[in-house]
Design brief:
single chain, 548 residues, alpha/beta, Rossmann fold, Arc Repressor Mutant, subunit A, 3 domains, nine-stranded mixed beta sheet, four-stranded parallel beta sheet, 22 helices, 44% helix, globular, binds 1,6-di-O-phosphono-beta-D-fructofuranose
Length: 548
């Protein structure tokens, strides 16, 4: 296969790891743990994997020879840069344990385990994928692993391949399911350990022990590069307002990190919109005010960053979406039978008066998007809702009103963008290359230590990699009980943007200046070779969180 010059050069990159992982390691037990909330309920559901201690790997002078082991690996959910390096780190880790160890990848996500679809990952395959973006080495998928039938079906192939440990690389839901699987295999004495790895560009799988999910760093840097390019373009032409939606599901971590990197004129943070109970009109007015103020200085251009989950955080919209979810769940067949041109009127007629009014006020394109197919969890697919168009259109109308009232004299022309898929498979930054390889290598160490129900954890990552701390965190420690599909379920608590956290506070303290002045930063493309201050920086979010 033909390769680019960068691909060839990147293949030779040796990811950096915590110092402790280079030689023999021993495991140090920390304090015993409890779940973040609902301790009694979670404990009852996980009798074998609840309350285990936090683990840390430290250097050891003792050389222990370990038996060969067969390990399985699964990539679950949306792509995130660095997944291939998790697998490479895992491969090198188990080979370092014993050269006869073998790694099997289940194909196209958790479905591969259930359908017995797999391939052995040998050294030549792994070498092709080191430091590359994407999940194409084995593919990924969104099948949920949750029923005992699936677990038993999976166990058949694990037994057949003599696999003693399974590593699941996924987000909060996949790691929750990994823990349910670990508990079940322990319960039935299946002899299979299950280890999780924290993946998602969304950055919403993080807590005290998991500093960040992998892929967030690279994806944000890619988006920040293109937003920076757009800012330079609009500062040059001075004629467009750019409305830029950013992926990230419910959480606004990606939008916030990009804002910290590029200093746009406006960045909406969904969590703040919800906390202040802002209406759609409030959000539109805030943006229109910035446009009008900049116009007074002759600046009829700027950038607005919008998190993709915004719509769900506007209280009135949240209520409308909840009613729509419910209505469509029960009347999908009737809805499908209505001629397309009458579907919106049909939905409107069946909504409560308050929600029907909001529904009717939406541009028809957005109203239609709200009625589209739900995801496997029954929720609106936020990445399909064109919030950037909705806001651009509504800000345009608001400015017309302001003009008529003599409150605005500028010119307004908008361009809309959505960045998401562009960053999910990007070549991982040095940070993600190193972090992911370390996570994979740590997963191997957890397997060697005989652990199950743990998530691989690498901490202190704003320091040089040699000072990073490798270990394991019991997944049950991150859980609480939440209502899903009408039932209370144990799930890993999703991390949203904290309004009293350092990253948001820094943003809030500076956004006024960024709005009116043109204080754009142009981060430029990710650099892989060159000075450390250019190539090895973590996200601004992490640096602020860790006070660096
Ligand atoms: P994960 O939560 O699986 O990591 O997915 C991340 C994500 O990129 C979200 O930001 C986005 O809303 C979603 O996936 C898009 O899903 P799909 O890949 O199915 O289009």
């Amino acid at each position: 296969m033909k390769k680019s010059a960068l691909q060839i050069a990147r293949a030779a990159y040796k990811p950096k790891m915590p110092k402790a992982l280079y030689g023999s390691v021993k495991v140090e037990d920390g304090a015993v743990t409890q779940s973040v909330a609902d301790q009694e309920e979670v404990k009852k559901l996980f009798p074998h994997t609840y309350g285990m201690p936090i683990l840390k790997f430290v250097e050891s002078s003792e050389h222990v020879s370990l038996p060969a082991i067969n390990v399985g690996v699964i990539l679950s959910g949306g792509q995130a840069p660095g997944g291939h390096n998790v697998i490479a780190g895992l491969f090198d880790g188990i080979k370092n344990m014993n050269v006869s160890s073998r790694l099997f990848g289940f194909l196209m996500g958790p479905g591969g385990l259930v359908d017995h679809d797999y391939k052995e990952l040998t050294a030549d395959i792994i070498d092709e994928y080191r430091n590359t973006g994407g999940f194409d080495i084995i593919g990924s998928g969104r099948t949920k692993l949750e029923s005992t039938e699936q677990f038993d079906k999976g166990l058949e192939i694990l037994k057949k391949l003599d696999i003693k440990a399974l590593v699941i690389i996924g987000g909060d839901d996949s790691n929750t399911n990994a823990c349910v699987l670990a508990e079940y295999y322990k319960e039935i004495n299946a002899g299979v350990q299950v280890i999780g790895c924290p993946k998602t560009i969304d950055g919403d799988l993080k807590n005290e022990m998991i500093e960040t999910s992998f892929g967030f760093d690279t994806a944000c840097k890619v988006y920040a590069e293109v937003i920076g390019n757009i800012q330079r373009d609009c500062n040059s032409a001075r004629k467009y307002w750019h409305f830029i939606k950013l992926m990230g599901r419910s959480a606004s971590h990606i939008a916030l990190e990009c804002a910290l990197q590029v200093q746009p004129n406006v960045c909406i943070i969904s969590e703040e919109v919800e906390a202040k109970e802002l209406s759609l009109d409030d959000v539109v007015s805030e943006i229109a005010d910035v446009v009008a103020k900049r116009a007074e200085n002759g600046n009829n251009f700027g950038t607005v960053l919008i998190p993709e989950g915004l719509i769900e955080f506007i209280p009135a919209m949240k209520g409308l979406i909840a009613e729509l979810n419910d209505f469509l769940a029960h009347h999908q067949r009737e809805f499908n039978a209505v001629p397309k041109e009458d579907q919106l009127a049909y939905v409107q007629k069946n909504l409560s008066t308050a929600n029907a009014k909001i529904f009717a006020s939406l541009p028809s394109g957005v109203a239609r998007q709200l009625t589209l197919d739900r995801d496997p969890h029954g929720n609106v697919q936020v990445s399909l809702i064109e919030t950037e168009k909705l806001l651009a259109e509504m800000v345009g109308s608001k400015l017309e009103e302001m003009k008529a009232a003599g409150k605005y004299k500028g010119k307004f022309a908008a361009q809309e963008h959505f960045f998401g898929y562009e960053g999910r498979c990007a070549t991982p930054s040095n940070y993600d290359s190193d972090y992911c390889y370390s996570l994979g290598y740590t997963a191997a160490a957890l397997i060697a230590a005989g652990k199950t129900g743990y998530m691989s954890s690498v901490r202190n990552t704003t320091a040089p990699a040699s000072e990073w701390i490798a270990g394991g965190v019991p997944v049950t420690m991150m859980m609480n009980m939440e209502r899903r599909h009408g039932k209370m379920k144990p799930v890993i608590q999703k991390a949203l943007v904290e309004l009293d956290g350092a990253p948001f506070k820094y943003f809030a303290a500076n956004r006024g200046d960024w709005a009116i002045g043109t204080e754009f930063i142009y981060p430029g493309p990710i650099q892989f070779f060159g000075p450390t201050e250019v190539c090895d920086q973590p996200t601004v979010t992490l640096k602020l969180e860790q006070g660096r």
